[in-house]
Hints:
By secondary structure, the chain is an alpha/beta fold. The chain has 9 helices and 8 strands. It has helices spanning 8-17, 28-38, 95-105, 124-138, 157-172, 194-199, 207-217, 254-266, 294-311, and strands at residues 49-57, 60-68, 75-81, 108-112, 145-155, 179-183, 242-248, 271-276. It has an 8-stranded mixed β-sheet with strand order 1-2-4-3-5-6-7-8, sandwiched between helices. It is globular, with a radius of gyration of 18 Å.
Amino acid sequence: MRAQEPHPQLKAFMAETEDAPAFHQLQIEDVRGITADVFSVEEPEPVGEVLDETIDGPGGDLPIRIYLPKGEQPFPVTMFFHGGGFVSGGLGSHDEFCRRITNTTGVAVVAVDYRLAPENPFPAAVEDAYAAIEWVAKNDGEFGLDTDRLAVTGDSAGGNLAAVVAQMARNRGGPSIQHQVLFYPPVSHHLEWDSVAENGDGYFITKEDLTWFDDHYFEDPIDQMNVYASPLLTADLKNLPSATIVTGGFDPLRDEGVAYAERLEAAGVDVSHYHYEDAIHAFIQMAAKPFEFDPSKDALADVAGDLRSALK
């Protein structure tokens, strides 16, 4: 399931950060600051247009950011839900990556600044994510978006939200979603996976970090059994959008992503599963500046082809 060691570029990144405290050893605000700083750039990659909007969300004002590619409108669109363990991340931390997605695919990206835990525990993030896709589906003409060609995308915690939103839309007769892109999604919140035992220490994110994130996201441990928290637990996965799932060999979340891909495929869903044996958690975000790592760019190119094909 994995190479002998991570890709040299990813290994060098880990070496540079090995003396930094683990996430679970920090305060919430410190984690949020690090998440923003690591992926910030002074000169963002230009796209056709960037629009910052505020919509009505279940908890009040809900910021979104719309990235339009260059070219002729209307554009197919993917919602984007950022990672960060449900406690960190936002429009700033994933700005450069969203720009790279837009330019690589020619698809408009709508990034959602959902509410974070612990101030807003589960299901606040889920409610915001679903409210945002409903709003976009109703207001597409105003921004040059073609929501008849609609996808959901997310990395890590955002991959969880993308999977959940796809299930919610099916269950509620909501917006028609053509495709879902899930980068190493945490689709089950139990830790009894071989990949957690293998990769839970020394590979950027630890087993203790995963527990720490969950402790902040869930007020009541019973919520971890909710299918809108752990979409792998859903009994019926039929009639969901086609899926692209990305996993990494040195990621503690590897096996649950693999399990979700297998269950979707068994339910008759068209699945592309890209497994990168020498990759660590969060590596896809390193396709963009300031890193631009080769394995990350290769993975983004693979996923971009799927997204373009699904949205035609």
